[in-house]
Amino acid sequence: MGVVSPDVSEEFRDGADAPLAKRILIGDPLTSQQVDDQLLPKRMALPIFASDALSSVAYAPQELVMILLIGGLTFLSFTPLVAVAVVVLLVVVVLSYRQLIKAYPSGGGDYEVASKNLGEIPGVVVAAALLVDYVLTVAVSVASGVDNIISALPGLDPFRVELAVGFVILIIIVNLRGVREASLVFAIPTYVFIASVGFMIVTGLIRTFLGDAPIASSADFSVQAENLSQAAVILLILRAFSSGCSALTGVEAVSNGVPAFRAPKVRNAQSTLVLMGSIAACLFAGLTALALITGVHYAENPCDLVGFDCTTPQPSLMAQIASATFGGGSILFFVVQAATACVLLLAANTAFNGFPLLGAVLARDGYAPKSLNTRGDRLVFSNGMILLGIGAMIVLVVFQARLTTLIQLYIIGVFVSFSLGQIGMVRHWRRVLRGPTEDSAGSGVDGASASDRRSAKIGLIINSTGAVMTVLVLVIVTITKFTHGAYLVFFAIPILAFLMLGVKRYYRDVDHEIAIDDTTRFGATGDVAIVMVSRLQKPVVKAVDYAVAAKHGKTIAVHVAVDADAATELQQQWADHLMPIPLVIVESPYRSFAQPVAQFIKQYREKHGSSVVTVYLPQYIVGHWWESFLHNRRARRMANQLMLIHGVSITLVPWLLDSSELIYGRRSRPLPGQERAGRPVVVNGRRAHRPAGPPKE
């Protein structure tokens, strides 16, 4: 059978009848054939997929310094050592994910690696961890962006939560417009951030080299340090390292977004990943160095800074460095702050690309609702974006958009996925080296040639190193952050994984239940149509017309009588107008409608055999939202109840009232002599037609 491409008129094109506000915010719908036009070149993919990793350098050094200051100013001497460890880990993770992209370019990322190499449960755990981390990425990024805005404009502090929620809504709208449009919006702030922060680092280092080192506004503040034992000192350093590791968040997003790249997808994704890692490492190291040079003192509790007025918001580390380097009221200071705030807010965009793509993969595999695998008007997985936005807004409201609180929940999920993903890659390369397998063949490495084996050995070394380091960091992060709020994440991940396994079982059971088998039989002893009649009006006449045109074996009209006088009057009208089908009156002493019809169908089948029954229900189509409250919507309610009866198909026959012209954008009234008609919309079976209005002029 051939594939037919119907000529869909503008009138019935998807989205043509969408509300005006939606079309203004999101734009006109795109056809499925335009999906390739939405693929990203490297210069646009960088701000889309790397904004999270790049922006995290704005708060990772701040969190590192803040944790070390708990032990006093002398603990800042550990900052270079901790920063070097973070940079080394970042390099190893980037190299590891280059191997992962090469082996599994389909976009499943760590989830696909863990599922294929470690089994179903580890794969689902990785997926749950990533989904949780994406929600927290949006919350932390937006909270950090708002924090930097408040550092420049302290008067906005009372509106912290409102600003955060508003920015999430704005990011949702921008992403719903499509990947390409979002990349254009996000590209400029990301590149401005890279350029401005890079210029600030170079300027600060040059000033230091020339003997005019910049001094931060908090450099003169001493700190009320805690008395720590030797064990506590080690834990404090490890906690600072785990906070600094927030600079690694977002690295995995590129592996999940490979399908969004232009061809050659793998090479472009790998190049973007390396570029992202290089820029992030340089910015992180540079900002950490300037924090030490300028003497930034940033405390978890501002009141611990001796001499600081803790009734005012504490300036962020980025704001203090920019003020010390360029001057507090200078244009460059505000450029850095504005770029930092923008890129932190837009860093949430990484999650708005990773979460929907992962959700679509999970939906295809049966672990998530199938609606997550549905593309919206702009060819993006809009349901996943909306779900992510709602989750992030809930987190921001619950934790009042406080960065220092949210950061404690962060990076647990991403290091769970890092660890299991790298372990899965180790098993993958070992399988490749043992010989050709289905898994290795799909990756492009069959283990046959010497060059392929050499490539597999290099991948095994890199991913083994990555596995050891990420597992070690996961243990450190767990120990140091668990009592500071990370335990919530450890509850959320298994709960979400359990729900995903439940969804999988549900879909499996449904597929088994509806699967066709050799016992299926076709045909029934009869075919009867029932036209529901309330009063004899044009909608009912049109429903009768469609039922008769369908040429059922038998067609009858049924009136549920809750008023004896009205039923008698209807019978008289039915005879006076010479209606072509018989009318049956069904008594309803309890004033219900669906139940008497169900009983009538049962009795009819007992008398005539197992007939296939089609129930025609006339229904009004209105244009104003308030009109729906002025009609009883009985047809919908009856349809929902009658669909529960086996062998019953429901056909809704819409009748377009004058106001329905608002939906289709045509004249509000037909020309003289033109009647308003409707075409049946079938539910639960038979045939489907769109409503028809008056002919176009």
TrEMBL record:
Annotated Pfam families: AA_permease_2
Keyword Transmembrane set for record: yes
Topology class, membrane: Multi-pass membrane protein
Single GO term (MF): transmembrane transporter activity
Alphabetical keyword list: Membrane, Transmembrane, Transmembrane helix
Range of residues in the leader sequence: none
Major subcellular location class: membrane
GO terms for cellular component: membrane
Coiled coil: none
Compartments in which it is found: Membrane
Transmembrane segments: 64-97, 118-143, 163-179, 191-210, 230-251, 272-299, 331-358, 379-401, 407-426, 458-479, 485-503, 638-657
Keyword Transmembrane applies: yes
UniProt region (Disordered), positions on chain: 668-697
InterPro entries: AA/rel_permease1, APC_K+_Transporter
Protein name per Swiss-Prot or TrEMBL: DNA-binding protein
